[in-house]
C-alpha cells in the first residue's frame, strides 16, 4: 500500500505529460535528445578532466611519498649503522667496561690505599675523556645527528656538545633501557619528543637506541643517537610549498613523528581520525582536512613501518582548470539556447499539418462529412491525410449501407428461427417413436428412444461449453444404458460418491468420449467390462480418473498414443485412428484451460487402462 502511495505522484505526472499537445511533446523530446546529452557531456567532460588532473597529481604525489619513505628508510638506516659502530670499535667497548668496573668498585666500597681516592678520581676523568673522545668521532660521522650519547650499565652518560645536550638525560635513560630490552641486540626507534637542551632551546627529536655488547656478547652499555626533525624540512618543505598541503610521518603505534605545521607532533592519533586510515603499503583517498576537501596520499616505510602521509587540497588541484571550466560552461549555455530555439521552431513546423487535421476531425465530429484534407506532401502527415479522406468516404458509404442492412435484419432473424426447426423436428419425431413403442407395449424401444433423445439434447441443443459434474456424469449414465441395450450384461459403470463436488464445473462432453474409446478398443469378450469414475482435488486443480479392466495396451502402443496426444488433432488423426476421441478431448481441455491441463494415459497390457483428466478447479457460483 505504501509503495502504491509512493508511486502515485509519478503516475500523475506521467498522465499530465500524455495530455500535452504534440508540439510541446516534441519540444520535450528535443530537450531530452539535445539539451540533456549536451549538458551531461559537458558535465562529465569537466569531471573527467578534473579527475584526470587528480589522478595525475595522485600518481605524482604517490611517487613523492614513496621517495620520501625511501629517504626516511635511508636516514634511519644511517642512524642505525651509526649506532652499530661501538660494536666494532674495541676501544669504545674497553672504555665502557672500565667505566662499569669503576662504578662497580664504588658500589662495593673498595676504595683501596690511602691515596686511592685521588687515584679513582683521576681514573674516572680519564675514562670520561677517552669515551667522549670516541663520541666526538661519532658526532662528526653524520651531519644530521644532533647528539650521540653513550651509557654504561650504571646509567652514567658520556657525550660531547654538538648542538646542545638534553636536560632530561637521567629521566630518559630508563625509557631507553626498557625499549632495547624488548628486542635484544636490535635497534629501537624512539618516537618524536620535544626536548629542551642546556641552552634552553626547544627541539623536536627522535632517537635510535641500541645496546652495546662486549666480545662475549654481554651488555656493557647503551648508545643513543638523536636526530633533529628539522632535517626532514629540507626534503619536505619544497613539496609542501608546491602542493599547499601538509606532510605527516606516523609510526606503527600511530604517534606522529613529523608534522609540517607541528600541530600533531609527539601526539598519538585519536581513534577514528583520518590519519589512522591507510594501512596498505600505499594508496590514496579523499578526506576533509582542516575544512578543505583534500587528496590524501600515503606510503608505508618497508624498514620502519612508518607511514608518510601527504595531503593536497583539491581546490589547489582544480585552480588551474577554472578558466577551461568557465569556457566550457559558456559554450554549453550557448549551445543549449540555440538548441531550445531550434526545437521550438521545428516542433511547431512539424505539427502544422496535424493541427489542421485535428480541426477537420472536430468538424466531422459535429456531423459535417463534406470535408477534405488537402494533401501536399508524401510524408507521414500526407499519408495520414489520405487515410482521413478515405475514412470520410468510407463513413459516407457505411451510412448509405446502414439503411439496407436494417431492412435485411428481419430476414436474417427469420432464417435464424427457421434454422432451429430441424433439431426440434428430430426431438418431436423421436418422441413420436417412443409414444408408438409404448402404445405397442415395446418398452425397450421406448427406453432406447428416450435415452437417445436425452443424449442428442445434451450434445446439440445446450450451447453451454461448461456444465456441472453431475450433468456430465448423467450424460455418461445415459450413454452406458444405450450400450447395455446393445451388449446386455457386458458392462458395469461404477461412479464413486462425489456429493461435495457436484457443483464443480467442467468442460462438456469430456467423459463420454473417453469411455466410448475404452469400450471400442479395450473390451475383453471373455469378461464383463467394469468402468469406474472417481474425482479428487489437487491444489488449484481437479483430477477425474476413468479406469477400466479391459485388454490394456502394450508399452509400444501406449507410447504411440501419448505421442499422438501431443500432436495437433489433424496431424494426430492421420497418424493414429484409434485415439481420435481422446485427441479431441485433450485438445479442447488445453484450449480452454491451458497447456498444463489435459489427459494423461496409463495402461498395462492384460490389466486395463487408466485415464487422468486434469481440470482447473472452478465452481458453479464462480
TrEMBL record:
<keyword id="KW-1133">Transmembrane helix</keyword>
<protein>
    <submittedName>
        <fullName>Integral membrane sensor signal transduction histidine kinase</fullName>
    </submittedName>
</protein>
<feature type="transmembrane region" description="Helical">
    <location>
        <begin position="26"/>
        <end position="44"/>
    </location>
</feature>
<dbReference type="GO" id="GO:0000155">
    <property type="term" value="F:phosphorelay sensor kinase activity"/>
</dbReference>
<dbReference type="InterPro" id="IPR036890">
    <property type="entry name" value="HATPase_C_sf"/>
</dbReference>
<feature type="transmembrane region" description="Helical">
    <location>
        <begin position="327"/>
        <end position="351"/>
    </location>
</feature>
<dbReference type="Pfam" id="PF02518">
    <property type="entry name" value="HATPase_c"/>
</dbReference>
<dbReference type="InterPro" id="IPR010559">
    <property type="entry name" value="Sig_transdc_His_kin_internal"/>
</dbReference>
<dbReference type="InterPro" id="IPR050640">
    <property type="entry name" value="Bact_2-comp_sensor_kinase"/>
</dbReference>
<keyword id="KW-0808">Transferase</keyword>
<dbReference type="InterPro" id="IPR033479">
    <property type="entry name" value="dCache_1"/>
</dbReference>
<dbReference type="InterPro" id="IPR003660">
    <property type="entry name" value="HAMP_dom"/>
</dbReference>
<keyword id="KW-0067">ATP-binding</keyword>
<keyword id="KW-0812">Transmembrane</keyword>
<keyword id="KW-0418">Kinase</keyword>
<dbReference type="GO" id="GO:0005886">
    <property type="term" value="C:plasma membrane"/>
</dbReference>
<keyword id="KW-0547">Nucleotide-binding</keyword>
<dbReference type="GO" id="GO:0005524">
    <property type="term" value="F:ATP binding"/>
</dbReference>
<keyword id="KW-0597">Phosphoprotein</keyword>
<feature type="domain" description="HAMP">
    <location>
        <begin position="348"/>
        <end position="400"/>
    </location>
</feature>
<dbReference type="Pfam" id="PF06580">
    <property type="entry name" value="His_kinase"/>
</dbReference>
<keyword id="KW-0902">Two-component regulatory system</keyword>
<dbReference type="Pfam" id="PF02743">
    <property type="entry name" value="dCache_1"/>
</dbReference>
<dbReference type="InterPro" id="IPR003594">
    <property type="entry name" value="HATPase_dom"/>
</dbReference>
<dbReference type="Pfam" id="PF00672">
    <property type="entry name" value="HAMP"/>
</dbReference>
<keyword id="KW-1003">Cell membrane</keyword>
<keyword id="KW-0472">Membrane</keyword>
Amino acid at each position: 500500500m505504501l509503495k502504491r502511495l509512493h508511486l502515485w505522484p509519478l503516475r500523475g505526472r506521467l498522465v499530465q505529460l500524455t495530455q500535452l499537445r504534440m508540439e510541446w511533446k516534441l519540444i520535450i523530446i528535443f530537450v531530452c535528445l539535445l539539451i540533456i546529452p549536451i549538458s551531461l557531456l559537458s558535465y562529465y567532460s569537466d569531471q573527467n578532466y578534473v579527475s584526470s588532473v587528480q589522478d595525475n597529481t595522485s600518481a605524482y604525489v604517490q611517487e613523492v611519498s614513496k621517495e620520501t619513505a625511501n629517504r626516511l628508510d635511508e636516514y634511519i638506516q644511517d642512524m642505525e649503522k651509526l649506532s652499530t659502530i661501538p660494536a666494532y670499535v674495541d676501544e669504545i667497548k674497553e672504555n665502557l667496561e672500565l667505566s662499569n668496573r669503576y662504578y662497580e668498585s664504588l658500589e662495593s666500597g673498595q676504595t683501596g690505599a690511602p691515596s686511592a681516592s685521588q687515584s679513582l678520581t683521576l681514573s674516572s676523568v680519564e675514562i670520561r675523556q677517552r669515551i667522549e673522545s670516541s663520541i666526538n668521532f661519532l658526532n662528526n660521522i653524520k651531519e644530521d645527528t644532533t647528539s650521540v650519547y653513550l651509557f654504561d650499565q650504571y646509567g652514567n652518560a658520556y657525550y660531547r656538545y654538538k648542538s646542545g645536550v638534553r636536560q632530561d638525560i637521567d629521566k630518559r635513560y630508563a625509557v631507553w633501557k626498557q625499549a632495547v630490552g624488548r628486542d635484544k641486540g636490535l635497534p629501537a626507534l624512539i618516537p618524536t619528543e620535544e626536548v629542551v637542551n642546556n641552552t634552553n632551546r626547544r627541539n623536536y627529536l627522535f632517537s635510535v637506541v641500541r645496546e652495546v655488547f662486549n666480545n662475549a656478547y654481554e651488555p656493557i652499555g647503551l648508545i643513543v643517537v638523536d636526530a633533529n626533525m628539522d632535517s626532514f624540512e629540507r626534503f619536505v618543505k619544497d613539496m609542501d610549498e608546491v602542493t599547499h598541503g601538509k606532510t605527516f610521518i606516523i609510526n606503527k603505534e600511530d604517534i606522529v613523528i613529523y608534522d609540517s605545521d607541528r600541530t600533531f607532533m609527539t601526539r598519538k592519533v585519536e581513534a577514528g581520525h583520518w590519519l589512522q586510515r591507510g594501512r596498505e603499503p600505499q594508496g590514496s583517498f579523499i578526506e576533509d582536512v582542516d575544512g578543505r576537501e583534500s587528496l590524501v596520499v600515503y606510503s608505508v616505510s618497508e624498514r620502519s613501518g612508518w607511514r608518510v602521509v601527504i595531503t593536497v587540497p583539491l581546490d589547489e588541484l582544480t585552480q588551474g582548470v577554472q578558466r577551461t571550466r568557465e569556457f566550457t560552461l559558456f559554450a554549453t549555455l550557448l549551445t543549449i539556447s540555440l538548441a531550445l530555439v531550434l526545437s521550438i521552431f521545428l516542433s511547431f513546423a512539424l505539427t502544422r499539418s496535424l493541427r489542421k487535421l485535428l480541426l477537420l476531425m472536430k468538424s466531422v465530429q459535429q456531423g459535417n462529412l463534406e470535408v477534405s484534407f488537402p494533401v501536399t506532401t508524401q510524408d507521414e502527415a500526407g499519408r495520414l491525410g489520405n487515410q482521413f479522406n478515405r475514412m470520410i468516404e468510407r463513413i459516407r458509404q457505411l451510412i448509405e449501407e446502414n439503411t439496407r442492412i436494417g431492412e435485411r435484419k428481419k430476414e436474417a432473424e427469420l432464417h435464424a428461427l427457421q434454422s432451429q426447426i430441424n433439431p426440434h423436428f428430430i426431438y418431436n419425431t423421436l418422441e413420436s417413436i417412443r409414444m408408438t413403442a409404448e402404445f405397442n407395449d415395446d418398452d425397450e424401444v421406448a427406453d432406447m428412444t428416450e435415452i437417445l433423445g436425452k443424449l442428442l439434447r445434451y450434445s446439440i441443443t445446450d450451447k453451454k461449453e461448461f456444465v456441472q459434474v453431475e450433468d456430465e456424469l448423467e450424460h455418461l449414465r445415459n450413454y452406458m444404458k444405450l450400450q447395455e441395450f446393445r451388449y446386455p450384461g457386458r458392462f458395469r459403470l461404477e461412479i464413486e460418491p462425489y456429493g461435495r463436488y457436484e457443483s464443480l464445473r467442467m468442460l462438456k462432453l469430456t467423459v463420454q468420449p473417453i469411455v466410448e474409446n475404452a469400450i471400442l478398443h479395450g473390451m475383453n469378450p471373455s469378461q464383463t467390462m467394469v468402468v469406474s469414475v472417481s474425482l479428487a482435488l489437487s491444489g488449484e486443480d481437479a483430477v477425474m480418473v476413468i479406469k477400466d479392466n479391459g485388454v490394456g495396451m502394450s508399452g509400444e502402443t501406449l507410447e504411440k498414443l501419448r505421442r499422438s496426444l501431443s500432436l495437433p488433432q489433424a496431424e494426430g488423426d492421420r497418424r493414429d485412428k484409434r485415439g481420435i476421441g481422446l485427441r479431441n478431448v485433450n485438445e479442447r481441455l488445453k484450449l480452454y484451460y491451458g497447456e498444463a491441463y489435459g489427459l494423461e494415459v496409463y495402461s498395462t497390457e492384460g490389466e486395463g487402462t487408466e485415464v487422468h483428466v486434469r481440470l482447473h478447479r472452478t465452481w458453479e457460483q464462480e
